[in-house]
Amino acid sequence: MSVMKLNTVTLESGDRDLRKTGAHPDYWYPLARSGDVKPGKTIGRTFAGEPIVIIRAESGRIFALEDRCAHRQVPLSKGKVSGERIQCCYHGWVYDDTGRCVNIPYVGKSDVMPRGVRAYPCREEYGLIFVFPGNAGKASVVQFPDVPTWHDPKYKTRYLDRRVNCHYSFLHENLMDMNHQFLHRRIMSRIRTGFLDLREGDDWVEVDYTFSRVGKQPMGEKVMLGKRPGSTTERPRDLMTVRTQYPHQRLKFWTAGSEHPALDLWITYVPVDKEQRCNHTFGLMNIRRPSIPGLMELLWPFVIRFTEGIFSEDRWVVELEQAAFDQQGADWNQEIFPVILQLREMLLRQGLPVSRA
After folding, report:
1. Is 72 helix (H, G, I), strand (E, B) or coil?
2. Residue 69's domain is classified under what CATH number?
């Protein structure tokens, strides 16, 4: 098989093709919004093709199981919640929160019950329901996402919750590479991006940018960035830091002279299908409130309109990238930006071939 190289980075090399690399399951991934699952209800989700049912017991407690009854493989998400348990819709087999089958109504009491179904570590935080789809024994030692601005009343949160038909790596690259502002020229006018610094570790890559504008600032962006204090010795210019801390991403933006970030975005991409050609994007966009009470709520529609326009263009272009990859059958990208070259290497190191993921 031929190998295409740019600098020292392998773009296509059998099972090292990044677009054929699966997201590693040994991390916490959000699978639903908290409000999606009411008490006594269920919702079916998938992680890389594996069906998972999220169950909210009548008490309000959340747990997650393999979404197929051990008896006839019917989805448990179609079943009935009874107290703290889930009952299959077909023959009424009952499972507890550990996945153990605890009752078969037509058999009666028995000391021997069939094997149950897999249970997944589950945790509710930030208005999201997280599941650990990998080795359950690692759930207690793998760091849970830390988003302190979500708890800070000085910030207002916009939730991102949408399907994108592309491999997750395209989205990592899209957010990490701020040189694509030309794509958003109709929404943001002309933006000049300045690359400042690149840092990296075994499971993370972080980059700093600054910006200058030629043209009028959109109202939605003006609301998000707030009043501009002006340059200071500590922060002489606008600064954006984007970090991929595998498998999640974080973007923070400080205006010149500001002490706190005007924008703090945490975002992650959850593979939906087995081939990982589709993902569900969940994000927490935390925007610092202006000093005038109630002003953010009044101007919030401008923020929604502005960000929705940006996200729509990003989704459109990464889905075009996926379509090109599918047509070519391999990664033909001729990448030259060091940030993306390092990001790709890190994603390859941390991920697994799709066949194993």
Report:
1. coil
2. 2.102.10.10
